[in-house]
Amino acid sequence: MTQSTPVLLDIKPTTDLHAVPIPEIYKRLGAKPEGLSEAEIKERQNRFGLNRILKVKGKSLVLKFLANFTHLMALLLWIGAWSGLSPKCLNWD
């Protein structure tokens, strides 16, 4: 490669990309409209790794569902419901 390797992703998160001219975006990313050469692809893969989306294991759907029944307001509603349904258990005559 004859040109120096640019600093990749030199775009600040607050930059509105839709307002940046396309040639400026190519310049910031070190890219060309026709794409990257094989050598540039291999260099970027060595430098940054493969372009993969990693799966992050989160809570199961069942646990997410059950979590809705255990916060403070839900517990107060459960207590209210049970006390309303069983007045004899609370010795209300």
Give an account of the 3D structure:
- This protein is mainly alpha-helical and 93 residues long.
- The chain has 4 helices and no strands.
- The chain starts with 21 loop residues before the first helix and ends in an 8-residue tail after the last helix.
- 0% of the residues are buried.
- The N terminus is likely disordered.
Tags for this model:
93 residues, mainly alpha, 43% helix
Q: Describe the largest sheet.
A: none
- List low-confidence stretches: 1-6
The rough form would be described as elongated
Mean pLDDT: 79
Return the string of H and E elements. Answer: HHHH
Radius of gyration: 29 Å
- Structural class estimated from helices and strands: mainly alpha
* Fraction of residues in helix: 40-55%
Record the SSE blueprint.
Layout: H1 22-29, H2 38-48, H3 61-67, H4 72-85
Question: Could you write a compact summary of the structure shown?
Answer:
The protein is mainly alpha-helical. The chain has four helices and no strands.
